[in-house]
## 1
Amino acid sequence: MLYEEISNDDNELSKALPPRDNDLRVNNHSMVDDDKNNDQSDSVKYKSCHQNRSVEARRRNRKRNDIFRRRRFRYVMTRPVYPRFTIKSIRKILRQYDISYIHTKIKQELLIIGAKNNKIKDQNEPKLPINIFSRHKYYAFRRLSEV
């Protein structure tokens, strides 16, 4: 014989184990299957779906997004905001006060309201009180919206 006989240790181990220990046998079997799968997966190379765009296309997209972001925050009004306010409730209050906006964003405890141009920003600035998004106003607004 050219090769040594391979001992059949798996059968001896499974006989020695109690019959209720099915998890161990299943896990032992799955580990053997995983080794076979790893060998196959190393030989097959998959193309990542996240690298389909070319570098030039991603650069154009980033440049375009930067332009939009600069436009969005060109004319802004800022107000301190209580953290429990949601963007939805803030926009509802802005509509009640007849404030036209193109974008709202909460950054830390500061609300940033983007306006379309400087004229609209100057018109909206006096309409919106400084303390409109305070803690006291939050609970008052909540009471009104529940009724």
## 2
Amino acid sequence: MENFRIESLEISKIGAFEHIKMDFPVKKQEYAHLAEIHILTGENGTGKTTILESLTVICDEKPGKNTNTNNKFNKYKDGGETKFVTANNQLKAEYISKRRLELKGVEQEYGLAFFAYSGFRKINNVFLEGVKEIHELVLHDSMDFEKSTSPENQKIFFQWIANTIAKGLIAKGKGDISKSEYFRNSIIYIESAISAIIEKPILFEIDDNFNVLLKMDGLVLHFDVQSDGLKSLIIWLGDLLMRMDRLKWKSNLPIFERNFILFLDEIEVHLHPAWQRKILPVVQKLFKNAQIFISTHSPFVVGSVDGAWIHKLKKEGAFAVLDGEPVLSEDGKSVRRILDETFGINQQYGVDVEKDLQKFREFRQQVMMGYKYNSVEFNQLVKHIASQSPELEQMMGMEMNQLIRITQKELV
């Protein structure tokens, strides 16, 4: 069966949009071994989150009211209200119908799944009572950007970590090496992914009270004393891999070969730029059959991979619109160039310094044209700019030397 993917989105009168039609091109053939990624960029208020939330509607197992009446949706009446549900047979067969049966207690095998995560979350301290079986459905809250990593779901994640480590140790104690390695590999998936992003090895452990510990840099510490960035990263990526591990899949397909759709809303929040640069390359390589949609304000995220499609949004009057056709990302572009081309930011310095540099350019034009100018104010401005940093001192020196050569006059 061909991998399921979202080809386009069209919405009207929702959020910042009067009307928008977005196409999501398939990945280029040279990137066939990598995940298909679509990056949404634009200033605040241009509807990036609205687009992500709109995309999740099509795979909700509890279809609600919808204004889309094209033939890809079936219309029906529910309590006097007109509602719509997707008519895509593959989506219905592989996901929606299975979710409905699972909610009724009938265990299912999946061939498709959807997950959504947001970078805005509170990381809570979690206290476990020992090894305890998890009864919550694997895909519970998986499509809710906020609830997917809610305190309740965070506890499920840590309970799963503790359970899996404990089961592995018990199997090893009984001499069942194969079973022990099976449980250990489930933890290794998460450890390896996180380690690749932060560029240092980490290990999960549990103490005698079943508290989840993290071993890193030679230290073994409780999770709650780790940095917000590391905790945030572990929570969403760990939750994703935990759910994938728990999910029964057709033909027991390995986790990293599965077809799923992943929605990420500004997950770089709390992360150092060095880690922001690693998120997409890691997930792009891990999940080759996934389609990933991500919103971001980070040039480090945008410039971290080759072959992702960048969709720029902008404000036009009171509404948000697409700013041109989608373009392919290039990891060979500098952050400076990405800020200019993708984010429309061409200033290199702080606001006050940029204002001073603009004044300098105006003075420079007057000098070169032979107009009268306030030489005292000009010289004070040059000295002030040069005093801000060695880089600006060098810049001002070069600018003044060039002006002196052009005008054949001593200006300072």
## 3
Amino acid sequence: MLQMLAFLSFEWNEEEHDSRSRPAHGEKCPLRRDTLNSRGGVVANWLDSCHPVLPLEIMTVPEVQRCWSRFLMLRPDQKGNMSRAQLANVTDTFGHKLLDQIPLADEDQITFQAYCSAVCWLSRSPLETRFRGLFQTMTSGTIGKEQLQTLLQNLYPREDPKTIQELATLYLSEVDKRNQGCIDEEQFATWMKSFPHHMLTSVMHFPIIPSKITLLEELQPSFPTAAVAFKDRSGMDAKQLVTVAAEMSLKRRDWKRLANNLGLVEKDCFRLEQEHLDVKSQILAMLQIWLRTCRETPLPLLKAALRLSGNTDICNEVFSLNF
């Protein structure tokens, strides 16, 4: 039962490799104190209950900074907005239903404020409000046996259809106490409340800042102030390379992928590992070597290489967005 509950819950726990991501030092978040307000109450569209944004007393500055670093990974535009069309490749049915709940600004734009509202709703709203919102995301009415089988098939992809059908029958009999042949919101809420409170709290816990990240780490500047001895070229300065190296090291990214995209070979990477003990120094030395030998305009090449190597968030933080 709890496995299914965990599957149905929103996956806010973040991947290990980038759990320490944060905005670049000095980067401002586009939230102003005078624009913040609160709208209470639970309505059909659950995100409306905290849109456009929540009061600053509810979201701390480190939490807003954390949200901003995560929002950057979605590649917003220069105004800090993201088009809903950017998420058009979401193929999961429930992913689409979740997107349908997000309030949109003009021209189908998802604003950073709406993103903060969603994150804060997941983290702050009462437990029952959260799992009722979860049900509303899964369906606009009731969950029948076929829909339940789809959920279970996603949860247990290796099970054969017969086993999935038996599990669906079992869950339906457990939750559908009125024998309606489907599960409505009230039945779902009653079933959820039947679990021990500490189990529910654990499954539905979506902290804005993961517990493994201390407040000190969250407030720590993203790059040191030490300078690097080479001249600026085409808008690229020393601090930007230091930032890239520091962020990739903190987020435990595979810097050799970036090196390969910049044209360096395996023996170059091996030599850097032998010459420099810590990862950040290895990355910085690699970037400096590349820059000295680069015969084209370096900035667009580095930005493209960062994106191709799975470091779009770092590229946006360092080069693209400044608010």
## 4
Amino acid sequence: MGELDGRVALVTGASRGIGAAIAARFAAAGARVAVSARTMAAGTSRLPGTLEDTVGGIRAAGGTAEAFAADLSVPEDRERLAEQVREHYGDVDILVNNAAVTYFTPVADFTERRRALMFEVQVTAPMHLAQLFVPGMRARGSGWILNISSVAARHPEMPPGPYAGRGGTVYGMCKAAMERFSTGLAAELYADGIAVNSLAPTKVVPTPGTLFHHLTTEDDPNAEPPEVMAAAALALCRAPASELTGRIAYSQQLLAELGIARPTR
């Protein structure tokens, strides 16, 4: 039997990168996986990777997955997504908030439209989706919410080093808000048996997004494979809230703490 047999997982931002890797790992562990993003098919995004690719890979490996296109910056899309997933699979046991919209621009040049969009997708949407799915989790006495964060949430060291020129302040602010949301919600839901955690890569992960923003390269020897995040996500989403909740975790450190071998691919 798989570690997630009988559970339904929704992974947002799952058309590529970390989200796609988590979805594949959960499906391999026996979960019925719902994947969501804006990009359903090829030709609709400047980045490679689609929901069709993710679902196709999962099914080819013998897993169960279904794709649901949604723009998480739109409240009505979030509500529709929740309804569609429930209609197809029933109540969601595991919610992984991975979707993100990212602009690396210095604060002085940041437009209000971009700031509002980033906050809507990376802060408001995770809260709204939690509100939509927590009642079902509470009724069953268990559930898992995992918010995917970033080392950008940390305060940059002073005096400023290379970080100062990357324009990641607003991105880091969004992720810091997500982490505070995670710990607060974990406290609120502990008595209900619902685990809430935040997970970030220890090192930059080569994904279409990080490659597009020139944060790493395909052959970076210090980069972290997305499978490491997937393994850490599985560890957080199979343990009961009494064991693992309210954590601001980093992938490699968490796997070492739990005695889990780090995947290489």
